């Protein structure tokens, strides 16, 4: 059970807890809490940890963080060894105080909201560096910040993000943390020379610890990351203030609040003590931890967001390439989005957004790097092999990092932010163009006109030379730059799902056709020119001149020298510029789509979808379990996953019921008009009453 599962398990209980009706289950309830450890017991545990081989700071943090120091001494005598990518980790399972833990501030769950220096946004420190570790056998990780302020800002951003995206405060307060969190020791280092802070962080379970901290009122990272770890007396007073009071002596509200804090105070934990690499693997502790956590969250059953999953794989790929000395620190940080535009320019690296993205494709999709890229992906997934689409998606997600990073700093509704969000799916699909990974090319920094001249020369080379891996250098560089703007302005969209009778080709298919056509190359050049100027790509003639005019309601192009410049659209590319040659249904334009037509089409699509849902439910219901009986009868379906779906189905049922009544009354009116009956006034009154009831629902 992970964080999402814990939420599901606690959902009913947390609702009752908030309503003041008690809870179904609580780890401590109104019973006694474990006694606060005595100082002498902590010292003995510290000594046992150092004798085990842990660094003094790790041993001290662990001895103060455990609920029972005697249990720690016993556990250290026989740690469990678990196999991970590249070696083994010695672990112990023990209860720990949550105020002695912090969420790992580089948690991949927060990838969606990170602001990277490569995005060029002013006023942001950028992500923290790490976690990293020394080579060979190791007990500790390190994360680096520019300063304490930098560390606190990123920790607070992660805290706020997790509370919104994966809120577990009420669940933890109602029942406590059920499943163990994964704890690692790390140092928070500061580039400005301030002392490093030794901390115990959750590599897995950050949402649960964030929820616990929220329930305990620990919303300020300065308290959890610096004040409490540095002042053991304050830390012990905080624990005592929660564990010592008797709930029976308090009023109902105060007792309920105390019960929530007590439930949040202690968590089961799996502590990673020491990593031992396999000889000759080149693995470090940080890489092993990333692989372990990735196995939990990148693939089911405990997924992050799609972006978070791909970002975790991308981080692993970069680390593998660095370990193999394919990337030096500067190139690694550039591809990771950790260099500002000024630093990238000083290093002689591309700084335009389209060039940054294209460079990631050119470097990481090289065929000779494929084994290392695949290794990085497999280290954080449960897959035994990597498909070409998965590989391309990982690289494309990394390519978009500077753009996404800049976009999250813009206010909601900003056009640049909207474009960055909308382009992702199409950009990832366009990167599936096979030639990106099978030909030799790179980002040269040449102008769009220079690239077009080279691309046109490549296009007219003899057919026998087209198979040469070097025959597409200029075309692919031009395509990679243009792809950024075409998808950003939705001139190139991902293939539509369930587009019966329409064009089902992906963006990569259209891009390939453009690379094999003179007009297509001119369209790509125009996309780069216009995109860099901050306008949507325009449509051009065969000679490259911009077309003026308009598009009529049927989607036909009407040229007019006095008209406005025409924008290149995905529809034009599919049905006019590069049609398949087969019978395709051109999408009906909104101007010619009457309300009745639109309603009829949506009704038919809805009925088709309902049939599909019914079929899938029947198929699920017929799956047999490993023993006797049906699988779904044995495993069920978590309420947290189905609650929203059920609410929508109930809402749909209400709409269907209301619309059915309206249709029945329409039929009744026609019958009365033909054969006589009550006047329409009473019917209107009835309909009005039903409408009011619907509004209340």
TrEMBL record:
Species this chain originates from: Streptacidiphilus cavernicola
Compositionally biased region (Acidic residues): 680-697
Annotated segments matching region Disordered: 673-697
Protein name per its UniProtKB record: Phage portal protein
């Amino acid at each position: 059970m992970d964080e999402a599962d814990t939420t599901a398990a606690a959902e009913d209980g947390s609702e009752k807890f908030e309503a003041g009706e008690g809870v179904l289950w609580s780890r401590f309830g109104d019973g006694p809490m474990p006694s606060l450890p005595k100082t002498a017991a902590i010292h003995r545990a510290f000594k046992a940890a150092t004798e085990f081989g842990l660094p003094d700071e790790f041993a001290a943090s662990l001895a103060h963080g455990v609920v029972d120091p005697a249990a720690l001494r016993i556990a250290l005598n026989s740690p469990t060894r678990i196999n991970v990518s590249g070696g083994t980790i010695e672990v112990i399972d023990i209860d720990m105080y949550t105020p002695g833990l912090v969420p790992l501030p580089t948690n991949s769950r927060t990838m969606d909201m990170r602001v990277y220096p490569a995005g060029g946004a002013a006023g942001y420190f950028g992500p923290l560096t790490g976690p990293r570790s020394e080579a060979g056998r190791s007990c500790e990780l390190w994360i680096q910040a520019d300063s304490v302020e930098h560390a606190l800002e990123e920790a607070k951003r992660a805290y706020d993000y997790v509370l919104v995206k994966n809120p577990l405060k009420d669940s933890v307060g109602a029942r406590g943390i059920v499943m163990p969190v994964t704890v690692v020791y790390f140092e928070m280092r500061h580039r400005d020379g301030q002392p490093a802070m030794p901390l115990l962080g959750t590599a897995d379970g950050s949402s649960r610890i964030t929820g616990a901290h929220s329930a305990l009122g620990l919303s300020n990272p300065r308290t959890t990351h610096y004040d409490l770890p540095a002042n053991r007396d304050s830390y012990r007073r905080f624990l005592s203030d929660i564990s010592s009071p008797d709930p029976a002596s308090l009023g109902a509200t105060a007792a309920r609040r105390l019960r929530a804090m007590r439930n949040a105070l202690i968590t089961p934990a799996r502590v990673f003590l020491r990593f031992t690499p396999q000889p000759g693997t080149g693995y470090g502790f940080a890489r092993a931890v990333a692989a372990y956590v990735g196995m939990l969250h990148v693939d089911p059953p405990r997924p992050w967001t799609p972006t978070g999953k791909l970002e975790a794989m991308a981080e692993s790929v970069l680390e593998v390439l660095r370990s193999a000395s394919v990337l030096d620190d500067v190139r690694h940080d550039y591809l990771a989005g950790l260099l500002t535009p000024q630093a990238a320019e000083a290093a002689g690296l591309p700084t335009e957004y389209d060039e940054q993205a294209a460079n990631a494709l050119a470097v990481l999709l090289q065929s000779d790097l494929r084994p290392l890229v695949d290794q990085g992906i497999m280290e954080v997934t449960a897959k035994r092999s990597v498909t070409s689409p998965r590989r391309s998606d990982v690289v494309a997600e990394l390519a978009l990092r500077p753009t996404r990073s800049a976009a999250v700093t813009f206010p909601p509704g900003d056009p640049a932010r909207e474009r960055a969000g909308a382009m992702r799916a199409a950009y990832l699909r366009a990167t599936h163009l096979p030639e990106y990974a099978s030909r030799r090319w790179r980002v040269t920094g040449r102008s769009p006109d220079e690239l077009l001249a080279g691309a046109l020369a490549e296009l007219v080379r003899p057919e026998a030379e087209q198979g040469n891996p070097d025959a597409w250098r200029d075309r692919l560089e031009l395509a990679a730059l243009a792809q950024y703007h075409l998808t950003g302005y939705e001139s190139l969209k991902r293939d539509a799902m369930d587009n019966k009778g329409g064009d089902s080709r992906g963006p990569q298919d259209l891009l390939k056709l453009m690379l094999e056509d003179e007009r297509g190359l001119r369209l790509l050049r125009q996309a780069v020119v216009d995109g860099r100027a901050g306008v949507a790509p325009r449509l051009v003639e065969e000679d490259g001149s911009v077309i003026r005019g308009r598009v009529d309601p049927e989607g036909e192009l009407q040229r007019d020298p006095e008209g406005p410049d025409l924008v290149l659209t995905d529809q034009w590319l599919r049905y006019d510029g590069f049609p398949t040659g087969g019978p395709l249904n051109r999408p009906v334009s909104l101007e010619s789509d009457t309300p009745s037509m639109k309603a009829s089409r949506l009704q038919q699509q809805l009925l088709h979808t309902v049939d599909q849902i019914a079929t899938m439910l029947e198929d699920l219901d017929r799956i047999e379990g490993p023993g006797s009986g049906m699988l779904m009868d044995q495993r069920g379906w978590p309420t947290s996953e189905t609650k929203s779906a059920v609410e929508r189905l109930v809402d749909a049922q209400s709409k269907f019921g209301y619309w059915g009544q309206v249709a029945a009354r329409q039929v009744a009116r026609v019958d009365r008009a033909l054969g006589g009956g009550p006047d329409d006034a009473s019917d209107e009154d009835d309909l009005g009453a039903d409408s009011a009831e619907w509004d209340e629902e």
